[in-house]
Amino acid sequence: MEECVFGLWKVLLPSPWALDAAIDARALVFVLANIAVVAFGVWCYAVRVRPGHASAVRLMWLWATIEMVNGSAHIVMAARRGGYFPGVATAPVILVIAVLLGSQLWRHHSGEMH
Q1: What is the full DSSP assignment across 53-112?
Q2: pLDDT (tens digit, 9 = 90+) per residue, 72-102?
Q3: Distance between CA atoms of 22 and 26, rounded to whole angstroms?
Q4: pTM above 0.85, yes or no
C-alpha cells in the first residue's frame, strides 16, 4: 500500500515509452502487478505451504529471498537518495519477516540433516 500511495512507479524505473504520457496507466499497471504478487503469495501459502506440498519449502525459500532482496533494495535506494523512497517505511518490517522465515527454514533444514 505504501508503494502505491507514494508512487513508487514514478521513481523506480523509467516507464515504457508507450505509457510515458499516461501516469494513471502506469499506476494501474503497478497496482495490478502488486495484486498479482500478493495473490501468488496467498496461493503459495494456501495451496502449497499449508497442506505441506512437496514444493512448499522451495516456495518459502523463494519468497523469503525475494522479500529479503525487496526490503534491502528499498533501504539502499532510500540511502542513496538521501531521504524517503517509496516503500522504505515498510521495508524493515518485510526484511525482518523474510529473515525470520529464512532462519526458520534453515533451522528446519539443519534439524532434518542431523
Answers
A1: -TTHHHHHHHHHHHHHHHHHHHHHHHHHHTS--TTTTTHHHHHHHHHHHHHHHHHHHHHH
A2: 998 998 899 898 888 888 899 999 999 999 9
A3: 7
A4: no
Count of all residues that appear for the chain in the document = 114
For residue 32, which amino acid is it? L
Residue 56, C-alpha cell as written in the block:
512448499
3-state DSSP assignment of residue 7: coil
Q: Which grid cell is 7?
A: 508512487
CA distances from 36 to 24, 29, 59, 84, 112 (A): 18, 10, 16, 25, 33
Lookup: cell for 54: 512437496
